[in-house]
Specification:
single chain, alpha+beta, Protein Transport Mog1p, Chain A, 4-stranded antiparallel β-sheet, 36% strand
Length: 203
């Protein structure tokens, strides 16, 4: 039923006299567009991936050159900042999957210098469109490499990674989620539903 509603909503956009070409102003070349047939404004198109935007999530500015889009996750009370989901796509190169996942592991420090791969949990499932999804999550201290203008690397304790790889017909997409542990734990179900609702749209 979710798949049918999403596809019908997108079909309405394509059939409304070019309405599908209209969207909110894209932020720094973000690939996110909003489906106008959805009066709630929660159905979005990420390049050619259609899904529902969870409550408490919103589009954020792109903060890295390779990002295709970024979503912000509303922080829970007591957390220092919002969570985020960064989206990346590098084409058909499936050999990059292991590289990206290992990069996620390497960004987090564990007590006693335990390898993050030993504490990470993984779950595989299919989206409503039959695309394979690998979801991985783990807590730790996040070490963020300095960016332009930052005086030094930043270290964030009590952080959590909640990230996924989605195998689409065009190649794997990467959804790198991170943020304060309480916020990310509170949004675990929303993240999974967001991924389960993904539908590949042939443009």
């Amino acid at each position: 039923m979710k798949l049918l509603l999403l596809v019908l909503g997108f079909a309405l956009v394509l059939g409304c006299g070019g309405a599908g070409e209209k969207s909110v102003e894209l932020k720094r070349q973000s690939v996110i567009q909003y489906v106008e047939a959805d009066t709630t404004g929660r159905t979005i198109l990420i390049a050619n991936l259609l899904t529902r935007l969870p409550e408490g999530w919103s589009e954020g500015d792109i903060t890295a050159d390779r990002q295709k889009a970024r979503l912000e996750i509303e922080q829970v009370e007591g957390d220092p900042e919002p969570g985020q989901v960064e989206m990346f796509f590098f084409g058909l190169d499936e050999e990059r999957i292991a590289i990206e996942i290992n990069r996620w592991y390497g960004q987090f420090l564990q007590p006693g210098y335990r390898p993050t791969v030993e504490v990470a949990r993984r779950e595989e499932f299919d989206s409503v469109d039959g695309m394979r999804v690998l979801l991985t999550w783990f807590p730790g201290t996040f070490k963020q490499v300095r960016r332009r203008g930052d005086p030094e690397d930043s270290v964030k304790p009590e952080w959590m990674c909640l990230s996924a790889v989605v195998w689409t017909p065009d190649g794997p997409w990467y959804f790198r989620g991170s943020g304060p542990k309480c916020t990310m734990r509170a949004n675990f179900g929303k993240m999974k539903e967001f991924l389960e609702n993904l539908v590949f749209v042939v443009m």
